[in-house]
Amino acid sequence: MHGPLMFRLLLAAGIFLLSATAVRAQTWPVCFDAEGVLSPQGFRNLRAARATFEEAPAWRASATLYREALYSPDDRAAVERTNTALVEAIRTGFSPAIAIVTSYEPLAEGCLAIEVTRHETPQPPALWHYHGVFFESGSAVVDQKWDLRLRIYAATYQPGTRVILQGYADTLGSPSDNLALSRMRAEAVADALIRLGVRAEDIEITAYGETNLMKPSADEVSESLNRRVWIDMRMRPR
Predict the structure, then answer these.
(1) Fewest CB atoms less than 10 Å from the CB: which of 71, 99, 125, 197?
(2) What is the spatial distance between Cα 234 and Cα 205, in angstroms, rounded to a whole number?
(3) How many beta carbons lie within 10 A of that of residue 84, not counting itself?
(4) pLDDT tens per residue, the chain (238 residues)?
(5) Which residues pair with 29 in a beta bridge?
(6) Do 46 and 28 meet the contact criterion of CB atoms below 8 Å apart?
(7) What is the DSSP letter of 55?
(8) How far is CA 120 from CA 50, 52, 63, 103, 161, in A?
(9) Residues near 235 by Cβ (< 8 Å), separated by ≥ 6?
(10) What is the DSSP string of 40-69?
(11) Distance (Å, whole) CA 198 – CA 202
């Protein structure tokens, strides 16, 4: 008899704790104009949503971006609205860890929604490791599939941030050619970031060629994991 009673007491305590650390969520619409550009009100709503992170510094906040219920990866306009809303939210000051989900609640046509949920538990320290850009064999062309990743990285950039680009190659070819290729890859990523608003003077490039392989291999091996540019962004000491 004590077992079921104890279970009910623990369940009640758990529900109480959930409601006490329970969260207050608020949602803002993020809408676009006819040209697919984020509207002025959309920008204002992102700033209003971001302000809720600062109302109580001891709390932990999380954000969810809701896209259209009819979202399809083949709908390029819907994909671009989602990507733009994500990038602009990060540029406004949100963490890159925004969850992106499909909304099953009605949304205005051409609109998304961002929801901020605040938890009454401390925010653990965050440490972001930026992944890099990978290349085809022998190529220094940045493929379009990396566009969103670079847009997100550029959105977290602030003038004065050290943007460290490390270029690498696989072991296919001569060491001298691979050293030159790894530098060309890093320079191609630098050019892409500069077009996205990163200052050239904040970018540092180092070429490693076929040394420091991500996936160790013998000589003359084509390995996609080793054809990369690693990106590290650090605030300069004040």
Answers:
(1) 125
(2) 14
(3) 19
(4) 445 444 333 334 443 333 334 456 889 999 998 888 999 999 999 999 998 877 655 667 889 999 987 777 788 888 999 999 999 999 998 888 899 999 888 888 889 999 998 877 655 544 445 678 999 999 999 999 999 999 999 999 989 999 999 999 999 999 999 999 999 999 999 999 999 999 999 999 999 999 999 999 999 999 999 999 999 988 765 4
(5) 113
(6) yes
(7) S
(8) 17, 13, 15, 25, 32
(9) 158, 160, 161, 162
(10) HHHHHHHHHHHHTTTS-TTSEEEEEEEE-T
(11) 7
| 203-207/161-167 β-pairing | parallel
Is 203:185 a contact under the CB 8 Å cutoff? no
Residue pair 166/230 in contact (Cβ under 8 Å)? The answer is: yes
CA pair distance 37, 65, nearest whole angstrom: 17
Q: Which residues contact 204 (CB under 8 A, 6 or more apart)?
A: 162, 163, 164, 165
Look up the pTM and report it: 0.78
Question: Is the separation of the CB atoms in 209 and 169 below 8 Å?
Answer: yes
